[in-house]
Amino acid sequence: MKRVTGIGGVFFKAKDAPALRAWYQRHLGVDVQAWGGAAFDWTDAEGKPVAGTTAWLIDPQESDHFAPSTAPFMVNYRVEDLPGLIKALKEEGCHVLDPMDESEYGKFAWVMDPEGNKVELWEPPAGQ
């Protein structure tokens, strides 16, 4: 079974999230949205859209979005078969956080790595 197929997103905390978001928007041109992040649509060499998006988010330092991890970051990895991967990870003795979540954005699950970092696994909806 193929496991991780790419990076779906990068999320990190900031002491002053609004100010840091504004800095990225002003100086690097990141299109920060009201939800605190941006979605980078994938394109080919000619700039034409292809299926896929990478999310980027700055959370306030006090956010519990990454709990139970105490790390100030979380990486979201794209996967092809999330239920199958979760089953395999559990069989391998990994610390998988329950429950798996499903929405219009796809399927999400979380696992803790050996150093206590929360890892987000994402199976996008078909065609994305």
UniProtKB/TrEMBL annotation:
Pfam assignment, any one: Glyoxalase_6
Domain VOC: 6-124
Transmembrane regions listed in the UniProt entry: none
InterPro entries per the UniProt record, alphabetical: Anthracycline_SecMetBiosynth, Glyas_Bleomycin-R_OHBP_Dase, Glyoxalase_6, VOC_core
Superkingdom of origin organism: Bacteria
Protein name, as recorded: Glyoxalase
